[in-house]
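Field notebook, page 436. I keep forgetting to write these up properly, so this time I am using the form the group agreed on. The chain and the ligand, fe (ii) ion, are recorded exactly as supplied. Prediction of the bound pose follows.
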Amino acid sequence: MKQADYASFVEPDRVRKEVYTDAQIFEREMERIHETVWIYCGHESQIPKAGDYYAVQIGRQPMILVRGKDKKVHVLYNRCPHRGNMIVGDRKGNTGEQFRCSYHAWTFHHDGKLKNIPMMESGYAGTRLNKDSPELCLKRAARVESYRGFVFASLAEKGPSLKEYLGKAIVAFDDMCDRAPEGEVEVVPNCFRVIQHSNWKLFMENQIDALHPSVTHQSTGRAAHEVEKILARKAKAGEALSYHMLSAFATVTIDKWDNFQTINYPHGHCILTGYMGLRPQDPDTLAYDKVMIKAYGKKRFEEIVGVNIHHVLVYPGLSVQSPLQQLRAVRPLGVDRTLTEIWHFRLKGAPEPIYRRSLAYYNLVNSPATLINADDLENFWKCHQGLSSEGGDWVSFARHHGHDIEKDGTVESAPNMGTSEAPMRNQMKAWAEFMR
Ligand code: FES
Ligand SMILES: [Fe+2]
């Protein structure tokens, strides 16, 4: 297959199955997309102290997110310049004053600069290597930028700035942080990790797929709704709130999903406008409102909690539910293997019950222990199996095609067409542009 052909696999309303199953295409998209654009590495609060690090995958590259002595955050390739050993083997930790390779004890500063090689002078005199050779340092990600504590890296020297790349999808981070009385969030260590036996794009498409919840999650939603009704009769409204997070999957029926909207942006980003009652009037919410009004004033408070977003998709690897402080990062491992990291955050300065609500959503909807996640995972695996078969050549994204509303570079699903496959068309359009 000639590489120039890849973009032709994408038509406005359908995509060739090989886009999901071909190992060569996977290599090319890692190079052209994941190892080029801005990829989320982690939150600054994951590494508060000097020497704190987290291992993270960018495309096929093992990387290290680390806090330096000067408080700066660095992103380095997890590879020793000597013989290639990974510098850190653990997922996270504190490396102390320096990184020290476990193979032959070369040491490095937190910013990747070489610190020492045992018996450097006698061992390397007259060779191509001396203490100042740049190839003796841990290689750094070409570009690192942080926005409101969320750290991104790009492995390409050139390209748009982080802000330019995110465009309007930056609202994911503003909406999450603005909802904190102190204007900041703090990560909850640690995350859930799930490896899916399916292509990474299946997960990304599913995140803003308004057509699937009332079908895929119907049984889970119905069961939760039964419990919710019993609790309501017993007047245990506080407990019913977390069941409501699940019952909405059944009570919001497929026809009602058309009332919602997706807004699609350049580079494959997308917003799904809000669908849940995110402003309940229970005592916990009212107490939170008070703290927020004190911090921001009534007018700004209304603006903040009035942001109508349920979900922001940051292409190619991030799904953020900002009003519920949830973030999922997608790390492709192979054409048919995908890791998702499932994180959630605390709103700094907010009362504890607001955090418990976020935790409840995390556990009930996004964790691997919930039926919701299991429902989706089963579909992802079955999709990948079906796509790998000879049973057909195309994946269809034709729903409501031709009705999208284009204005100022954005594409909105038309009124009463919230189940439009516009977000999938938008992602594949971006994919084709990157692959061209
Ligand atoms: S491989 Fe790292 S010091 Fe030798
Ligand atoms: Fe789902």
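OBSERVATIONS:
- Residues 206, 212-213, 216-217, 376 surround fe (ii) ion (ligand 2) (CB under 6 Å).
- The radius of gyration is 23 Å.
FOLLOW-UP: compare against the apo run.
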